[in-house]
Amino acid sequence: RSRWGGCGGWGAGALRVALPAPGHPLGLSGPPEFNARALEAEEAVICHGAAWGLVPEVTEAGPEGDVHVEVVWRALPVREAPPADVPSLGEAERELAEALREATEVLARLDVAGSGPVAEAAIDAYRARAERGREVLAPGYPPRAVRVLELAQRVELLVSLAYGNGHGGAVSASEMAARGAALRPVERTARRAQVAAYNSVVEEREKRVR
Fold this sequence. Notes:
The structure is a single chain. The protein is an alpha+beta fold. Helix content is 50%, strand content 15%. A five-stranded mixed beta sheet has the order 1-5-4-3-2, with helices on one face. Strand 4 (52-61) and strand 5 (68-77) form a beta hairpin. It starts with a strand and ends with a helix.
């Protein structure tokens, strides 16, 4: 269950998504208190046109198998400034394709790319969802945003499979370090692409105003 009163009453015309991670304040603009809370939650919503942001606080209660989850969105003041490190859709698409190629080559050499029955089942499940025509974005988004988000989600899945697939053939410390070095920038690029896709409607609106 989620409780959120929205921010239309503050004069906000749209919302921006932020997906920060330690060392990467993606989509944030400050101040430090808001950034710290958003980094802890690893997500936030910024009200475009109003100096407010929302950070989720998740609580769980109940026995295993019957857990009740509640999400409360806390409103905090934010700095009205350009969000950090958010690319355009075109930049995100190019970076994602390049990062995916580079990481695939490195992981293939190390024999640690997602493989085996568990990985194959996860990929098959993803493809089945996509084939059912699930909408990844609400109506009104540009087709390129849908394409970028789909690719970013596929990349994110492959990264999670590679991390969760044990060490694969990477048995030495240097090989495991190489795997991490290959995956970290890809993971970062996928998050940047997701934020670019989610926020593309706001970006298009700003272009028309300029």
